[in-house]
Amino acid sequence: MKLLHPTFGLLLTLALAPLAQAVEPARTEARQRVGAHELSWECRGSGPQTVVLVAGMGLDVRATFRNTYRHFPVEGVRLCLYDRAGVGQSSPLPAARPLQALSDELAGLAQALNWGPMVLVAHSFGGLVARSFALDHPEQVRGIVFVDAVHESWWSGLQQALSPAGWQLMQNIIRWERDVHAHEDFAEAVQSLQARRRPLPLPITVLSRGIPHTQLRQARFSYADVDAYNASWDVAQARLAQESSDTRQRRMHYASHLFDEQDPWLVIEEIQTLLQRLPARAD
User: Which residues form a coiled coil (predicted)?
Assistant: First the structure.
């Protein structure tokens, strides 16, 4: 077996040290009934600002934001996360629900736990949930950090960009997510947000991946369709940045769609920057 060069091994050790040596923070973890479902949630820290992490389709929120959640400095901030029903540690679902149900679920959880006006940090499909919630409850959202989050224009743009074979593969994946894996209906969520879309009257940050998404090759997408997938995503990221008149946009140069293992530090930095951009609360 070929050994690592000692210098490289030292550099790798130093690079990983902040993650490996961090002390596990004090936290509150519990389950809360919202409607017919038991939702798993967790918070750490306390203070006047509440930040809530929202995961993508079928993704366990603790896995999605593991390093971001663990290393975020919570002085003056209550940092919370939750799993939607059917995902992670929350109760299972028998079938997919519309986007409105996901927004209502977050509203019920936030009210039960007194999360109050909050900053949402939304990854991937979670961006649709966050925007739907912000449209339903504008008084409850102070700002949003979108972490490589979906914009509804991407779905129609992707259909135009992919080959017929690639589009068929993509539809198969979305149907599998809806009926088998996540029990979340991407196509319905996109249509729902398109029907009621309006600008967000709050500050937002749009963080977009810098490393192309290549896992599509596992499903036998062609190289051309993988490139088209990523190009159409970039176009939709620019559209997402136009959803507010107060937008900050950054490229996560060294992070892929599943950003947390590569660059949680940039996400942490941008959450803190957004908190500084917020107007003072009149409590």
Answer: none
